[in-house]
Design a protein that fits this description.
Elements: E1 8-12, H1 19-33, E2 39-43, H2 49-61, E3 65-68, H3 72-84, E4 89-93, H4 103-109, E5 123-129, H5 135-144, E6 150-155, H6 165-172
Parallel strand pairs: 1-4, 1-5, 2-3, 2-4, 5-6
Helix pairs in contact: 1-2
Length: 173
């Protein structure tokens, strides 16, 4: 809770990187650390059925609120509603971003880029990344998912990696 004090925690990353699993694990870790914390999970990746069902299921089992958003306008409305409802933490599971699009643009369109708050970080953005991209792909992903409000890089699917060189390269870069 104290590492990322922002009420809003956004999980971004490429398609299939494990963002939904990260959102669930973060929510459960928050719940374990502070059982009284009121948590809302917002699924902005409503097009993918399996992740959607999994996120809603864990929210219900863990006594957390669940909201869905399939457009940027619905995302804004869902976050605003969760803020009005007084949730202590709002975790947003974003969809993957296609080629030629950028996370910073999506955040700006949703009013989450710090401009509306005078430059203050409204959200902490956590990037879920699997380590098995090549160097060129990794550079492209890091550029596409660059954010003015970085929270962390969360390495996923480590059990599927042949080596961890890309993790070291990103850490050094």
């Amino acid at each position: 809770v104290e590492n990322w004090p922002q009420r809003l925690q956004v999980i971004a990353g490429p398609f299939g990187a494990g963002k939904t699993s990260v959102a669930i694990r973060m929510a459960l870790a928050l719940r374990k650390e502070s059982p009284a914390l009121r948590i809302c999970l917002v699924n902005a990746d409503a097009t993918r059925g399996n992740g959607r069902l999994l996120l809603r299921h864990y929210a219900e089992l863990s006594d957390m609120a669940y909201k869905e958003a399939s457009t940027t306008m619905e995302l804004v409305a869902g976050i605003n509603a969760a803020e009005r409802e007084g949730f202590d933490r709002i975790l947003v599971d974003l969809p993957g971003i296609g080629r030629g699009k950028y996370l910073q643009t999506l955040l700006a369109d949703a009013g989450l880029d710090g401009q509306a708050t005078g430059g203050a970080a409204r959200a902490a953005v956590h990037l879920a990344m699997p380590p098995h991209y090549g160097e060129e792909q990794m550079r492209g992903m890091l550029e596409r998912y660059r954010s003015s409000q970085p929270g962390s890089i969360i390495w996923t699917k480590l059990d599927e990696a042949e080596h961890f060189g890309q993790i070291v390269n990103v850490a050094m870069g």
